[in-house]
């Protein structure tokens, strides 16, 4: 998954936090919903502007960020 196609970092939107393109929904919120036990279907029902690919992009973004952090510490 190429998260860059779906995640944007724009300083004028939500203080520059990574958001799903075309929305004001931040990656962190989607990850929190998943971590809190919401299913993908529940998230999509609550946020009809999102797609399954958007949720996967959030996961890919988090994995890429973790990889960068791990590599910078090593």
What does this structure look like?
The termini are far apart. The protein has helices at 27-35, 40-46, 52-73; strands at 7-8, 19-20. The protein is 51% helix and 5% strand. The model has no long low-confidence stretch (mean pLDDT 94). The protein is mainly α and 74 residues long. 16% of the residues are buried. The protein has a two-stranded antiparallel sheet with strand order 1-2. The protein has a single domain, classed as Arc Repressor Mutant, subunit A (Orthogonal Bundle).
Output the keywords.
51% helix; mainly alpha; two-stranded antiparallel sheet; 74 residues; globular; Arc Repressor Mutant, subunit A
Fold topology:
Layout: E1 7-8, E2 19-20, H1 27-35, H2 40-46, H3 52-73
Antiparallel strand pairs: 1-2
**Widest sheet: strand order?**
1-2
Mean pLDDT: 94
For the record, the CATH architecture stands as Orthogonal Bundle
What is the strand tally?
2
First-residue to last-residue Cα separation:
25 Å
Structural class: mainly alpha
Radius of gyration: 13 Å
Coarse morphology: globular
Count of individual domains: 1
Q: What is the third-level CATH name, the topology?
A: Arc Repressor Mutant, subunit A
Which range does the strand content fall in? 5-15%
**Name of the CATH class:** Mainly Alpha
According to CATH, the homologous superfamily is Winged helix-like DNA-binding domain superfamily/Winged helix DNA-binding domain
Low-confidence spans: none
Note the run of SSEs as H and E. EEHHH
Largest sheet: 2 strands, antiparallel
Helix percentage range: 40-55%
Number of helices: 3
């Amino acid at each position: 998954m190429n998260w860059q196609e779906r995640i944007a970092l724009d300083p004028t939107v939500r203080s520059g936090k990574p958001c799903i393109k075309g929305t004001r929904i931040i990656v962190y919120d989607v990850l929190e919903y998943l971590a809190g036990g919401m299913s993908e279907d529940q998230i999509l029902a609550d946020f009809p502007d999102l797609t399954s690919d958007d949720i996967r992009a959030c996961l890919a973004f988090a994995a890429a960020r973790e990889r960068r952090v791990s590599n910078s510490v090593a």
